[in-house]
C-alpha cells in the first residue's frame, strides 16, 4: 500500500458526512466578507480533527504539524454570490440577504465554493487520521471574499505570514462547468488579471427641453461606451487576449431632466502587465477626451476596485502535482487546463510568503449539462465531484509530504 492509498482508505466512511456538509454549506450561503456561520462551522470541524485553528482577517486557518518535513498550504474560498438559485435540486438554496446597497438579494453558492470547502475538510480529516503515513505540516486555509478580490488581501493584511509557518508550496483548486471526475491542470499563466473601474463623468444639469443650458452626461457616457470597444479591436495587436466590458451605466432619474453626472462600471482582463497597462491608459485617455469633446465642466474621476492579480502556476510544483494526479486518477481523467478568462485572488497568499504555487480545476457536471460559474444553475453534482476534489487535494499534498511513495 502506498501512503496515498493508506490515507485515502477511510474516505468511503467519511464521504456521507462530507456530502451532508456540502449540502449544509450550500443551503447556508453567505455574501463575501460576511462568512460568519461558515467560519464557525469550518473552525469547529478543524478543531475536532486536531488542527490548531487561527482566525485571521475574516478567514480560518488550520495547522497540522506532523514532524519534520515540508509545509504544504491548501486554500479553499468560502463566499457565495447574490444569485437566486434555479437548479431545481431538492437541496437548492432559498436563502436571501440584504446586500451592501440595501437590496434584498437571493443567495447561492453559484461558484461552487461549497464544493471547495467540503473537499478541503474531507482532505484535512483524512490527513489528520492518516498522519502515520506522512511527515511535515499541512495547512488548511479557508479564505473569505474571493469574489470581490478582498479576502486574500485581508488575511495577509491581518498578519497571516506571522501566524502560520511559511509554506514550501501552496495549492488551490476550483470546480468548473466541465466533466465531473476530470481534473484540469497546466503550468504557466492560467488566469487573467482583472481590474474594475468606477468612472464618474461630470455634466451640467438642465431641463430636458433646454439641453443648450447644460452639458449632457448621458450623451458623454454613451460616446464612451462605444469608443471603449475600439481598445481591444483597434489598439491591441491581433491575437492579443483581452476583454473590456462596461457592465453598468447609470445616470439621471426622469425623462425631462438632464442629470449632472453619469457613472460607468468597467471591467478589464489581460494576461500580461503590458497589455493591462495599455488598456487602462487607453480607457483613461478616451474618457478624458470624450469629456473634453463635450465641454464637461470638471475632469472625470477614476476609482479602481476589485483588482485581481495574475495566476501563474510554478513549473516545478505543477509538474510534481500533475504527476501525482496522473498516478492517482489515470491519464484519461487528468487533462490540460486551457487558459481561463476568469481571475482569482489566491496568488496573493503565496505571493505574501514568496512561495511557489499550483492551481488546478476539476469538473462538476455530466456531459451536456455544464453551466458557467455564477449561473443560477451552477450546482455541481455531489459525485464524483466531491470524491475527485477530496482525492486531488490528498494526492497533491502527499506528493510533497510523502514523496518517497510516488
Ligand atoms: Zn466566482
Ligand atoms: Zn469561484
How would you summarize this macromolecular structure in one to three sentences?
Helix 7 (217-228) packs antiparallel against helix 9 (273-293).
Task: Give the topology, please.
Layout lengths: L2 H6 L2 H17 L8 H14 L2 E5 L2 E8 L4 E7 L18 E3 L5 E3 L6 H17 L6 E8 L7 H7 L2 H4 L5 E11 L3 E3 L2 E4 L1 E10 L3 E2 L9 H12 L1 H6 L6 E10 L5 E2 L2 E10 L2 H21 L7 E8 L2 E3 L1 H15 L4 E3 L11 H6 L3 E9 L19 H17 L5
Parallel strand pairs: 3-6, 3-7, 7-18, 8-17
Antiparallel strand pairs: 1-2, 2-6, 4-5, 8-18, 9-16, 10-14, 10-15, 11-13, 12-14
Helix pairs in contact: 2-4, 3-4, 4-12, 7-9, 10-12
Question: Could you characterize the architecture of this molecule?
Answer:
The longest helix has 21 residues, at about 275-295. It contains twelve helices and 18 strands. Strands 1-2-6-3-7-18-8-17 form an eight-stranded mixed β-sheet, sandwiched between helices. A four-stranded antiparallel β-sheet has the order 12-14-10-15, with helices on one face. Helix 7 runs antiparallel to helix 9 and helix 10 packs across helix 12 (about 385-400). It starts with a helix and ends in a 5-residue tail after the last helix. The chain is elongated. With about 400 residues, it is α+β, with helices and mostly antiparallel strands. It folds into two domains: about 5-190 and about 310-400, Zn peptidases (Aminopeptidase); about 195-305, Alpha-Beta Plaits. It has helices spanning about 5-10, 10-25, 35-50, 115-130, 150-155, 160-165, 215-230, 230-235, 275-295, 315-330, 350-355, 385-400; strands at about 50-55, 60-65, 70-75, 95-100, 105, 135-145, 170-180, 185, 190, 195-200, 205, 240-250, 255-260, 260-270, 300-310, 310-315, 335, 355-365. About 35% of the residues lie in helices and about 25% in strands. One zinc ion (ZN) binds near residues 111, 113 and 373.
Amino acid at each position: 500500500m502506498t501512503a496515498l492509498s493508506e490515507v485515502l482508505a477511510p474516505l468511503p466512511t467519511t464521504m456521507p458526512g462530507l456530502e451532508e456538509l456540502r449540502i449544509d454549506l450550500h443551503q447556508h450561503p453567505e455574501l463575501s466578507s460576511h462568512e460568519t456561520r461558515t467560519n464557525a462551522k469550518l473552525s469547529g470541524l478543524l478543531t475536532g480533527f486536531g488542527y490548531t485553528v487561527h482566525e485571521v482577517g475574516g478567514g480560518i486557518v488550520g495547522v497540522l504539524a506532523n514532524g519534520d518535513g515540508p509545509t504544504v498550504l491548501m486554500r479553499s474560498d468560502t463566499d457565495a454570490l447574490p444569485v437566486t438559485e434555479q437548479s431545481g435540486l431538492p437541496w437548492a438554496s432559498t436563502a436571501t440577504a440584504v446586500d451592501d446597497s440595501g437590496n434584498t438579494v437571493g443567495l447561492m453558492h453559484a461558484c461552487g465554493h461549497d464544493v471547495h470547502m467540503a473537499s478541503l475538510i474531507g482532505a484535512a480529516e483524512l490527513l489528520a487520521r492518516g498522519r502515520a503515513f506522512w511527515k511535515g505540516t499541512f495547512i488548511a486555509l479557508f479564505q473569505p471574499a474571493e469574489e470581490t478580490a478582498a479576502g486574500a488581501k485581508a488575511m495577509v493584511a491581518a498578519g497571516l505570514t506571522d501566524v502560520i509557518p511559511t509554506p514550501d508550496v501552496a495549492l488551490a483548486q476550483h470546480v468548473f462547468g466541465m466533466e465531473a471526475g476530470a481534473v484540469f491542470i497546466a503550468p504557466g499563466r492560467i488566469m487573467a488579471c482583472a481590474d474594475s473601474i468606477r468612472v464618474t463623468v461630470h455634466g451640467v444639469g438642465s431641463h430636458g427641453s433646454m439641453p443648450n443650458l447644460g452639458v449632457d452626461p448621458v450623451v458623454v457616457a454613451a460616446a464612451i461606451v462605444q469608443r471603449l470597444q475600439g481598445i481591444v479591436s483597434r489598439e491591441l495587436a491581433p491575437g492579443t487576449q483581452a476583454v473590456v466590458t462596461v457592465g453598468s451605466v447609470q445616470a439621471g432619474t426622469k425623462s425631462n431632466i438632464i442629470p449632472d453626472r453619469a457613472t460607468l462600471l468597467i471591467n478589464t482582463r489581460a494576461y500580461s502587465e503590458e497589455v493591462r497597462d495599455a488598456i487602462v491608459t487607453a480607457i483613461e485617455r478616451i474618457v478624458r477626451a470624450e469629456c473634453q469633446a463635450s465641454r464637461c465642466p470638471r475632469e472625470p474621476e477614476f476609482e479602481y476596485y476589485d483588482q485581481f492579480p495574475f495566476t501563474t502556476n510554478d513549473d516545478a510544483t505543477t509538474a510534481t502535482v500533475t504527476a501525482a494526479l496522473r498516478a492517482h486518477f489515470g491519464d484519461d481523467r487528468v487533462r490540460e487546463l486551457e487558459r481561463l478568462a476568469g481571475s482569482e485572488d489566491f496568488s496573493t497568499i503565496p505571493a505574501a510568503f514568496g512561495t511557489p504555487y499550483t492551481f488546478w480545476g476539476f469538473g462538476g457536471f455530466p456531459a451536456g449539462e455544464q453551466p458557467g460559474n455564477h449561473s443560477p444553475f451552477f450546482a455541481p453534482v455531489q459525485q464524483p465531484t466531491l470524491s475527485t476534489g477530496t482525492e486531488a487535494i490528498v494526492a497533491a499534498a502527499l506528493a510533497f509530504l510523502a514523496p518517497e511513495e510516488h
